[in-house]
Amino acid sequence: MRNHKFWKKENITGLQLLDRIPRLAILGVFFGFLFLALILRLYRLQILEGAANQEEFMSSIMKTQRLAGSRGNIYDRNGKLLASNRLSYDITLEDSQNYRSNKERQRSLNGIAYQLIRLVPDENKLNTVLPISVDEQGNYGFTEEGWKLSRFKADFYGKSTVDELTEVQKNVTAEELMKKLSSKEKFLIEDTYTEEEQDQYGLPHTLTAKEILQIANIRYGISLNSYRKYLPYLVASDVSEEAMVAVLEMKRSLPGADIQEGSIRVYDGGESLSSILGYTGPISADELEAGNRDGTVYTNQSTIGKGGIEKSMEDWLRGQDGTEQFYTDVVGNRKSDPEITRVPQTGNDVYLTIDKDLQNAVYQMLEQQIAGILLANMSESKRSDMPKAADASQIRISSDEVYFALIKNHVIDTGRLQEADATDLEKAVYDKFSNKKEQVFREFSDSFDVSDSGYDSLSSEVKGYYDYLLDVVKKKKILSDKSGDWDREEKSFRQYLSDCIANGWIDLGQVEASEKYMTLENSRSLTEEMILDILKKDSGFDFLIFQTMLTEGTLTGEDVEKLLYEQGILSKEDPDYALLINGQLNAWQFIRKKIKNLEITPAQLALNPCSGSAVVVNPKDGQVLACVSYPGYDNNWLANQMDTDYYQGLAADLSLPLFNRATSQLTAPGSTFKPVTVIAGLNEGAISTDTSIVCTGVFDKVQPPLRCWKRSGHGPILSSADALKNSCNVYLSEITYRLGTVEDGVFSEEKGLNKLREYSGLLDLDKKTGIEIGEAEPHVTDRFAIPSSIGQGTHNYTTTQIARYTSTLANHGNSYDLSLIYKVTDSDGNTIQSFKPVLRSNVSIPDYIWNDVAKGMNELVKTNATLKDLKVNAAGKTGTAEESKSRPNHGLFIGYAPFEDPQIAVTVRVANGYSSGNVVGVGKEIFNYYFHLEDPADILTGTASGVSNNLRTD
Asked: Which of 18, 194, 458, 650 could form a disulfide with 462 if both were Cys (CB 3.0 to 4.6 A apart)?
């Protein structure tokens, strides 16, 4: 080595030596030191301090969580509580544990969910996020349809819009979704478990279909928070104290389960206020998106107003949310105690203009009056023995229709007749029904070859079945719209089917066939089998059979009445039960008595009439004192966690209790519109206050002629006020005829119609009222000028819209928007916002016209058979609106009092109430109640009111 060239020169300096060492070697040494330092640092961080550092990192993510503020209360104008909150105990569950395997996690969560379900005996308390139900046979079905169902499917499959769903995903069934939810890819919910799994996870040997659905609901709800595990899922709300204590005691064996204090919305307004107040419920995906888009912070655990004042005043009622902060690990498990950073605030209180006592009283008045109308028009005869009504006023309700109404409107639960625990009577009725059903299908299928005179010879019963059959096959799209009508004189039903198949008008894709190619005869035979099978499963067809049984007497009215007791609709402690059983009270006497005493209500029967509405307004400012829709419902069953059985019952109720008839039902106003025509005639100079016209009973200047309600005619009508007092159709028709007459003396339909439309708009009948809950759009007539002058034509208004018009008549031209809001206060009672009247318009016409209209309405009250003994001076106008010859007319009344200085304006409508004479009594009782003219006990008797037997004076 000494022979190396570096050593050949003896006098080499140190710097020269360094210059001669390769630079890469120096860099290598330098980086070697750095690498060694890094290794030592990593060793210290990962080995010596690894556990501590990992814990510090895992707990370093700060989260902010919303704390819901309490909802404000709702009061009536006098401070009576209508809606409030009470403390509740809610069961929640977090997926906050670490598991060794996915299988252990699935089994553990399913076991915890099952144990929690067992602690809540009332399944309506369980939160539901899946729109799926299960029947007694274990079959799953969707509880939603249309867009809502499609939106759920999009969420389930992780699609941002419905349009992104594939055809398979769009058409997935509830059964298929449940299989997917129960699969290994989702929640691993199995039907059976081993003894070891039962002991380890608290699961039973076998799960029922209902239990599988309940577990799937909890698991799916938890999965919605999979990226925010610190958010608990609401398993059940408002549970009993026993369930609350049990959860707290079992927390160690139910990791993640807890009890949270919540609040339950409670309503004290009764059925009369449900349509105004609405209810609250869990926020939907659409509401969540819309609410947060508008800048309001909601979460999927939020409660929101679903209808009525709860919805329209949501921003005022909802509390100001607070926040708390805490640390979680990267998975979302909470690692520190929460610290409140903003205290939640209680929402504002809303005071309504409604008088709770008046509202409840008017609701009872309507129910009493409608029951009285029913009793006045019920006949003990069967429909088959009654002559066809000559007009709507002659329509009567047969005895078999009354009994059938109890079945058709689900008061009698026909499903219970075939249950294992059915009573002897229920079993006997079901046996009769089964035998009749077999007979019906045998005779029905035998008639498929009948045509011409053979078809004419068929009973009306079988012909009715054919009508129903054709309606079903068209609704189910089995039969194309191109098929045309079946000519029953030329072809049998079987021939008709064959023609439809040959022309491609039958959807054979719905026919189950073992062969791909079929003959025409085979196709027709299979189609017949399919149609008959559909009818056998169709509940509507079953109702037809029950109806036939009542008509022919195989099912009696007494049978139906006894079922009311067997199924708990009426109590067997009722003294009338023994009288019915012993024959001391016959079936017809019994049902009339129950209707008279309101033990069977008009709403339960859902006959015509079964509904009504009334609005009471302060004409000086538009404040609504009462806004009643009959029938109503108990919104306590819909608020918070909705009782689905109760809701489905309401949805199926033929009396439509969820439909606000005061703000949403549109009908013609009838003769209550006549003041508009008089105002137009006077202001346009077509008539003067003393214009006299002879009423002969018919106005024949146009074709077809229009008849006066008084067929014999009124004779001379001496003035416009006299025309209103007598509600003379001929006089009002003459006004419109003159308004529509052009220069050459010829009547112009268009001109007459335009004048009526102009003055309808002048009185704001063409506008919504501004009321804070939903309202239908009014429709001012656009056809038939002469009928329109008496409130027919195509006029269509809600009760609220007629109520504002009545108020405008009362105060001589000031049209105020209607309002339900009196004031808003904070939780300490300090007023934040007070009601301010909104003057929509002022009808500027001479005072003499207002005075003349008021005079005519005042004279009507003084001469009306029902109102003439009223102890307060009032003005009023009755109205009978014709709709159809096959259904009773609508009855209306408008009025105000006192006449000299009106304090209230009243509008009443009973749809299909036959005539105004049957309705005016409600108006009278409202005046008596409001002005304390009679003892309330004499007004609110709890029994059906006497009516005028369809007396018509308009």
From this structure: 458
- pLDDT class for 515, splitting at 50, 70, 90? low
In sequence order, the 6+-apart residues with CB closer than 8 A to the CB of 50 are none
pLDDT at residue number 9: 45
Which DSSP helix (H) or strand (E) runs through 892? Answer: strand 890-897
The dihedral through the CA atoms of 26, 28, 34, 40 has a sign that is negative
How far apart (Å, rounded) are the C-alpha atoms in residues 381 and 402?
A: 11
- In this predicted structure, the answer to whether residue 508 has a pLDDT above a threshold of 90 is no
Residue with tokens 């408008």: 894
Rounded CA-CA distance 621/905 in Å is 11
Q: How far from the centroid of its chain's Cα atoms is residue 917's Cα?
A: 31
- The pLDDT of residue 330 is 59
Count Cβ atoms within 10 A of the Cβ of residue 627 and give its class: 0-12 exposed, 13-18 middle, 19 or more buried. Answer: buried
Cα–Cα distance between 807 and 620 in angstroms, integer? 8
Per-state percent for the chain, helix, strand, coil, to nearest 5: 45, 15, 40
> Is residue 905 within a helix (H) or strand (E), and if so which, with residue range?
strand 904-910
Lowest mean pLDDT among 25-34, 130-139, 235-244: 25-34
Pairing label, strands 349-352, 74-75: parallel
* SS3 call for 296: coil
How many helices and strands (H and E) does the chain possess? 36, 25
Least Cα distance to 363 among 602, 591, 83 occurs for 602
59, pLDDT greater than 60: no
Type of residue at 706: L
| N residues, the chain | 954
Distance, CA of 550 to CA of 569 (rounded, Å): 20
- Count of C-beta atoms within a 10 Å radius of residue 823: 16
Q: Which class for 438: exposed (0-12), middle (13-18), buried (19 or more C-beta within 10 A)? A: exposed
Residue with tokens 């007539």: 781
Give the Å distances, CA to CA, from 19 to 5, 10, 22, 365, 767.
14, 16, 8, 115, 101
Tokens 């079953």 — which residue? 542
Whether 261 contacts 244, CB under 8 Å: no
Count the neighbouring beta carbons within 10 Å of the beta carbon of residue 588. 17
* Residue ranges of E strands in 199-345: 233-236, 257-267, 280-282, 303-305, 322-328, 339-342
For residue 611, pLDDT over 70 is answered with yes
Exposure string over 784-808, b if 16+ CB within 10 A, otherwise e:
bbbbbbbbbbebbbbbbbbbbbbbb
Distance CA 544, CA 715 (A): 50
Is it the case that residue 256 has pLDDT exceeding 50?
Answer: yes
Q: How many CA atoms lie within 13 A of 869 on its CB side?
A: 5
Task: Give the bridge partners for 834, in sequence order.
Answer: 823
> Distance between CA 796 and CA 888 in Å, rounded?
17
DSSP 455: H
User: What is the average pLDDT value for the chain, to the nearest integer?
Assistant: 90
Coil, strand or helix: which one is 118? helix
Are 234 and 127 in contact, with CB atoms under 8 Å apart? yes
Q: What is the per-residue pLDDT across 169-214, written as a single tens digit (0 to 9) for each?
A: 999 999 999 999 999 889 989 877 888 888 888 888 889 999 999 9
Q: Among 52, 21, 232, 214, which Cα is nearest to 129's?
A: 214
By C-alpha distance, which of 851, 888, 925, 915 is closest to 672?
915
pTM, 2 dp: 0.87
Return the amino acid letter for 722. Answer: D
Its sign, for the CA torsion 180, 128, 257, 136, is negative
N-terminal to C-terminal alpha carbon distance within the chain? 136
Least confident of 119-128, 285-294, 907-916, 943-952: 285-294
Distance CA 892, CA 884 (A): 16
Alpha-carbon dihedral angle through residues 770, 771, 772, 775, given to the nearest 10 degrees: -90
Partners of 763 in the beta sheet? none
